[in-house]
Design goal:
Strand content: 15-25%
Radius of gyration: 21 Å
Shape: globular
CATH topology: Metallo-beta-lactamase, Chain A
Low-confidence stretches: 3-18
Helix content: 25-40%
Structural class: alpha/beta
Distance between the termini: 77 Å
Number of domains: 1
Mean pLDDT: 94
CATH class: Alpha Beta
Number of strands: 13
Length: 307
């Protein structure tokens, strides 16, 4: 009998009945029927287990839409189970706002459940052209933490706009510019409460990441379009600051970066001397401001050089 009890305890300890959740998820209410989990402001680490982006559920009335599935199968599973437990409603779709690993890897959970995964059509090419983007999280996490996680390509693709209709509200997926931070960037718009999930078009509380894939003109254009929508609440892909003007820090940062780097380039400043001519101290309170400021200036300068 003793051996039987020990075996039963061992079995239960390895099941979800007793297993402690891997992620400490505490979604906050953003608007009526909309709850979001705010990710860590650092890059993916062993400590945060890749949970660095914001993830939301939106209640449609007869079901839920998940926005940005997260960094792993397990994260997506825990978030989905929390959402369905809290609301008592099934998940109708998962939306991915760009191809980055911290939001796309979790789509493997929804794909396994045969739940539609929706993204902009350019995500297919983004995935193909950036294979290195998918190396960091599996290298950081244990095999157990990364179990079940796969790189999946979303099965429902759109061009300019896609509408998800529920019994009580609709959710609109919008492509605001051909390229902002990435080609596959989209926003999620909930018209009845004027809530905008801006993905990586908006960063708050931490500095944005301007990459070789980014487009200064397109990114600024997308932010002006967000302003024109007159949202009541804007939540970016990173950071917990939200409100009607939560896009402004990103817009001001990009405009300052563009003006100063272009002036330095036009004046034939060598890139090795660039940071002597670029002052982003206005944004010093953003997490990783110094490191990313240097990186962002260099990448934009190189873009100007290639043009």
């Amino acid at each position: 009998m003793t051996k039987l009890i020990i075996a039963l305890v061992t079995f239960l300890a390895g099941t979800s009945l007793w297993a402690k959740p891997l992620y400490d998820l505490k979604p906050v209410k953003v608007a009526e029927g909309i709850y979001c989990s705010i990710g860590d402001l650092n890059p993916p680490t062993k400590a945060n287990k890749g949970n660095v982006n914001n993830t939301c559920w939106i209640d449609l009335g007869d079901g839920l839409v998940i926005v940005d599935p997260g960094p792993t199968y397990e994260f997506a599973k825990e978030f989905a189970e929390l959402a369905t437990k809290r609301t008592g409603k099934p998940i109708k779709a998962a939306v991915v706002t760009n191809y980055h690993d911290d939001r796309l890897y979790g789509a493997s959970y929804y794909a396994a459940k045969h739940i539609p995964v929706i993204a902009h059509k350019s995500i297919v090419e983004d995935i193909k052209k950036n294979p290195g983007k998918f190396n960091r999280i599996p290298h950081l996490l244990s095999k157990e933490a990364f179990a079940g996680t796969k790189l999946v390509t979303p099965d429902t693709l759109f061009d300019k706009k896609y509408t998800i209709r529920g019994s009580k509200r609709t959710v609109e997926l919008l492509k605001l510019s051909p390229v902002s931070e990435e080609h596959s960037d989209i926003v999620v718009w909930v018209p009845d409460v004027k809530f905008l999930f801006a993905g990586n078009i908006v960063f708050n509380d931490r500095a944005l990441n301007y990459t070789k894939n980014s487009n200064m003109k397109g990114w600024i254009e997308a932010l002006h379009k967000i302003a024109a929508m007159k949202p009541a609440i804007v939540l970016g892909g990173h950071g917990g600051t939200m409100g009607p003007e939560a896009y402004k820090t990103t817009l001001e940062y990009l405009q300052s970066l563009q003006k100063q780097v272009k002036a330095a380039y036009d004046n034939d400043v060598d890139m090795s001397e660039l940071m002597k001519h670029v002052d982003l101290s206005k944004f010093k309170d953003l997490k990783h401001a110094e490191q990313l400021g240097r990186h962002n200036a260099n990448d934009y300068y190189e873009q100007l050089d290639w043009k």
